[in-house]
Amino acid sequence: MILLVEDEPLVRLTHVDILRESDYWVLEAENADEAFEILKQRPDVKVVLTDVDMPGSLDGFEFARLVRQGWPEVGVLVISGKTAPGPGDLPPQTVFAPKPVPPAALVEQIERMIDRAEAQLSGESPDT
Q: Which residues, 6 or more positions from 74, have their beta carbon under 8 angstroms from its beta carbon?
């Protein structure tokens, strides 16, 4: 289960199509507030894919920090076509990708995050 947080409808639709074509279930949110409500209700979310520039009280970097604190088992992928992370912007275990993200690269990154999360849950080294 992937939670996609993106306020631009066309970009969100494109990412949903890419992920669903790769057999992922996708939940959608337009901003961090909506995404937090989904995370509270859906313990099956494995990865959060979030844009940096979103409407509301939080940008994608702050949202990623709060997700890592509240849901450390959930992988977080931050994407942006406008803003690159500076020092300290990304919390540990968070990945950044510049937009546009090629579909194959997006799916590969999601797969790596899910593999890492499953390895941590089973007590294995993430690289095994």
A: 39, 45, 46, 47, 48, 67, 68, 117
